[in-house]
Amino acid sequence: MKPAFHEIDPAPVRVAVRFDGQELLLPEGANLAASLLAAGIVSLRDTPVSGAPRAPFCMMGTCFDCLVQIDGVTRQACMTEVAEGMEITRPTREAADD
Ligand code: FES
Hints:
It is built from two helices and seven strands, in the order ββαβββββα. By secondary structure, the protein is α+β, with helices and mostly antiparallel strands.
């Protein structure tokens, strides 16, 4: 299936990151949430109460639907730039309750 989101830069410098163990080559310095969406990863976490999948929504740091863990620290993907070697995982239930 073709991704619903597309990158603007046709030839960005790409760096390797991992998302839930999957290696991805994302544009260095780009917005992490947008880059994951463009890579076809839509759901970044599940709600702690119902387990429903959540995707980036506001893209400006207010909804917290883009929470991920980066190198073990819970952060908003929409407020983070892509950097080489990021180890990104979906937040654990314990981290989401924090
Ligand atoms: S998408 Fe809303 S806080 Fe990141």
